[in-house]
Specification:
alpha/beta
Length: 192
Amino acid sequence: MNHNEAGGAIRDKIRIAEIAPDERKITAGEATRLLFFNGDETWWKDTAWRPESSIPSGNELHQILGYEQDETFIRYYRCKNTGLMIKVIGQPDKLNIAGNEILELKTYRYPCNKERQVVAGTFQAQCYCWLTGLQYYQVHLYNAVTRRMEARIKGEFNLQNFRKMLGWAIDLQGAEYAKTNCQAIKALEQFA
């Protein structure tokens, strides 16, 4: 099977994702956090319901359920606003080369998180589609409390929607950098 039959330009394994001093980078996970979980530190709380503490973490569940492949993909994205080249890095949970699709696992413990994980997983899966060249994705939603796979949401990569959301994530990252730099400058001013 050649790369075209496999559904895109699957790149060779890249073990080290170094960054040059004059370029910026963003990972698929960071972009997802910035878009869907940033600044909302109480998103996981639901006072009416608490799971047992013995439930495995999301990372442990990825390993248990076999959603851990070790290929890292890198691609560059040019920001329209700034013209900067951004190195986008990601490591999909699972590749289904024969099906031309990405399989993204999202786990949750609290019922209030289910919908947010679907939306976040959809964006992250599309990011991996863009990185790998695969055309389709599935978001697998696993309830860690009931230990059941609750949904398998299928979709097709949408370049226009993905670019818009990645642009937002890069803008949010820039705002975080600016906030951190302002805090550092204020701290330095105290010593001047």
